């Protein structure tokens, strides 16, 4: 199958999401394979999730603050 | 101005966001199997709190080393300081010795000598054996005592029970979750109703198989391959019990009814194990020098069982308690306040249960309802009456 060279920005976003999803699944399988048990995997995943949520929240707050300063 | 710099900056942000998105998706995907396992484990029958069950789930699912490390840090930080005010009394254990309520014409048999106090002057009743049950006659099957076990920590009190093997029969009772399935003839995971009139004591059964890396024979069949060199509580088919260092290979010898292993022996042929410090042979647990609730089981020169438990013990101090109480061979059983229990029943029918020490966390009714952990029940032998 040949993918079209000229694609819309929405299609590009979908493609990148699909690629990221595949990488995430591969990482998950690797983690489940290598870890001593599902408990450790879950605990690490929970910590990563909390860290990511914090970083997203901090970033959003900073963006909001810079927008307010710009206004 | 060439647009190179803003484009590169946008590309960098995009890459960072993609990495974050990948990690986010991977974390969510990882949480799915973990969540399914956790919810299914928590929805099973439990008689401990959610916190303890969650820690146990983590321990059983690859987090044993992590849990042990966190526990070691916690107990090290909260370790008691040496010294402190002396105690003026010991917790009351057992009942007053009653005369003449045993079998008609029975002669008083062997009774262990008083446990010699370590700290002087001795407190009233220190090291003096008392019957665990009322109306147990001149030869009570279970005797209890307490004594201060460490001169450097004069507030530590050890509880010890002596079990007359000639009058009692030891039974291994599997818990709801330990040993893990599959297990034929698991039973009710509590003192069976039909045997409650004979039960005189119950006590905790040792580390889970996963953390002890040791073996189990149940009803003459191997549940988990036995490991040579490991301390083992054995009951033979003729009803005799022993605490031995296992040397019979991975399978079940024909004369063994049950055998539960737990770590290397802490006392062997009268002497403390010279290697009571840490090493992989001590299982996936907190550091041996950490002061925590610990329990152990030994056997005296006459083949009677001796159980000991106390808070703030190292493996070495537990071994010294058992040795002082008369054990010539002994192993460590469970540690931590959530798992350490010795319960005696003051009246026939498992009535009036009583913990060996008043500060034992689990209720004295623990083994009257299904428990997730395995335990030992001590019954009067056939023909033996209260």
Produce the secondary structure layout.
The complex is a heterodimer of chains A (71) and B (386).
Chain A: H1 9-34, H2 38-70
Chain B: H1 4-42, H2 50-77, E1 130-131, E2 142-148, E3 157-163, E4 168-173, E5 199-204, H3 209-212, E6 216-218, E7 221-224, E8 231-236, E9 241-245, E10 256-261, E11 267-268, E12 271-272, E13 292-299, E14 305-313, H4 315-324, E15 329-335, E16 342-347, E17 351-355, E18 375-380
Antiparallel strand pairs in B: 1-2, 2-3, 3-14, 4-18, 5-16, 5-18, 6-7, 6-10, 8-9, 8-10, 11-12, 13-14, 13-15, 16-17
Q: What distance separates the N and C termini of chain A?
A: 49 Å
Termini distance of chain B? 101 Å
Radius of gyration of chain A: 18 Å
Question: What sort of overall outline of chain A do the alpha carbons produce when their principal axes are compared?
Answer: flat
Based on secondary structure, the structural category of chain B is alpha+beta
Q: Could you give the order of the helices and strands of chain A?
A: HH
The string of secondary-structure elements of chain B, in order, is: HHEEEEEHEEEEEEEEEHEEEE
Q: In angstroms, what is the radius of gyration of chain B? A: 24 Å
Strand order of the largest sheet of chain B: 1-2-3-14-13-15
């Amino acid at each position: 199958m040949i993918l079209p060279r000229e694609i819309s920005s929405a299609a590009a976003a979908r493609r990148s999401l699909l690629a990221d999803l595949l990488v995430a699944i591969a990482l998950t399988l690797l983690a489940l394979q290598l870890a001593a048990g599902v408990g450790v995997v879950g605990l690490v995943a929970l910590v990563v999730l909390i860290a990511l949520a914090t970083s997203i929240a901090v970033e959003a707050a900073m963006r909001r603050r810079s927008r307010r300063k710009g206004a | 101005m060439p647009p190179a710099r803003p484009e590169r900056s946008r590309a960098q942000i995009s890459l960072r966001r993609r990495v974050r998105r990948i990690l986010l998706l991977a974390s969510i995907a990882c949480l799915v199997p973990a969540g399914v396992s956790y919810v299914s484990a928590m929805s099973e029958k439990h008689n401990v709190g959610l916190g303890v069950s969650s820690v146990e789930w983590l321990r059983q699912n690859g987090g044993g080393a992590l849990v042990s490390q966190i526990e070691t840090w916690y107990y090290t930080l909260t370790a008691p300081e040496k010294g402190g005010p002396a105690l003026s009394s010991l917790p009351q254990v057992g009942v007053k010795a009653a005369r003449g309520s045993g079998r008609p014409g029975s002669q008083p048999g062997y009774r262990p000598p008083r446990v010699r106090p370590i700290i002087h002057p001795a407190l009233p009743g220190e090291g003096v054996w008392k019957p665990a049950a009322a109306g147990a006659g001149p030869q009570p099957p279970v005797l209890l005592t307490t004594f201060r076990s460490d001169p450097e920590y004069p507030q530590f009190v050890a509880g010890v029970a002596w079990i007359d093997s000639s009058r009692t029969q030891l039974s291994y009772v599997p818990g709801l979750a330990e040993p893990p399935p599959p297990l034929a003839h698991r039973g009710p995971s509590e003192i069976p109703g039909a045997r409650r009139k004979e039960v005189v004591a119950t006590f905790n059964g040792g580390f889970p198989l996963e953390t002890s890396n040791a073996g189990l024979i149940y009803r003459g069949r191997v549940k988990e391959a036995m490991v040579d060199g490991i301390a083992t509580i054995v009951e033979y088919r003729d009803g005799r019990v022993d605490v031995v260092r296992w040397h019979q290979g991975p399978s079940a010898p024909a004369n063994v009814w049950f055998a539960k292993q737990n770590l290397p022996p802490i006392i062997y042929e009268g002497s403390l194990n010279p290697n009571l410090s840490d090493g992989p042979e001590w299982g996936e647990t907190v550091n041996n020098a950490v002061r925590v609730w610990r329990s152990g089981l030994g056997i005296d020169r006459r083949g009677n069982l001796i159980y000991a438990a106390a808070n703030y013990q190292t493996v070495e101090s537990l071994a010294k308690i058992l040795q002082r109480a008369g054990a010539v061979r002994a192993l460590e059983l469970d540690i931590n306040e959530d798992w350490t229990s010795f319960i005696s029943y003051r009246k026939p029918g498992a009535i009036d249960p009583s913990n060996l020490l008043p500060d034992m966390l689990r209720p004295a009714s623990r083994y009257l309802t299904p428990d997730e952990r395995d335990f030992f029940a001590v019954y009067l032998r056939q023909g033996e009456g209260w």
